[in-house]
# Entry
Amino acid sequence: MMAETIHVMHSEEEVAKRIEELGKQISEDYKGRQVHLICVLKGGVFFMCELAKRISVPVSMDFMSVSSYGGGTSSSGVVKIAKDLDEPLEGKDVLVVEDIIDSGRTLSYLLEILFKRHPNSMRLCTLLDKPDRRVREVKVDYTGFEIEDKFVVGYGLDYAQKYRNLPYIGVVEGVE
Ligand code: IMP
Ligand code: MG
# Structure
């Protein structure tokens, strides 16, 4: 088995502090309303659970899983819904929760699909954003950390399905 070295980019404490701040901000912005969190599996699940705990307005949650066609290291932007949401979005104040926005292809396609389901409102919250990599424009409403163009793991993010469980955000050495 190959040993990979991982350097800490954002520590567990830093991530926890930032999620608490995001939760406060979201709670203020959604005052008097219920927020419907949508988790994009699998990467978004750690972030969404932590974020949900820091939101003080009523929260409901749903999950979906998408895979993008094309393979390779970059996403094609054509998204296949592998697991759809359980609940309709009509009339709901939807907050899509993502682990990372890279080229923006997956998200812009996904948001288009969800928008057709007539939510009352729809916003986007991402733990990480790599703005330098953007190919498709995506309006991000809440960002945990903007990062440079490095391949990161942990807090839901994987490298070949590994490292999702790391409680911090790290950079894998030797991976571009
Ligand atoms: P894109 O924005 O359509 O290019 O694709 C974003 C998806 O690619 C994310 O949801 C992740 O699954 C994956 N991804 C992008 N950058 C990274 C990274 O640095 N580490 C792990 N996964 C990544
Ligand atoms: Mg993802």
User: Anything to note?
Assistant: The pocket of inosinic acid (ligand 1) is lined by residues 43, 75, 99-107, 151-153, 157 (CB under 6 Å). The CA atoms of residues 70 and 92 lie 32 Å apart. Residues 12-29 form the longest helix (18 residues). The domain at 12-149 is CATH 3.40.50.2020 (Rossmann fold).
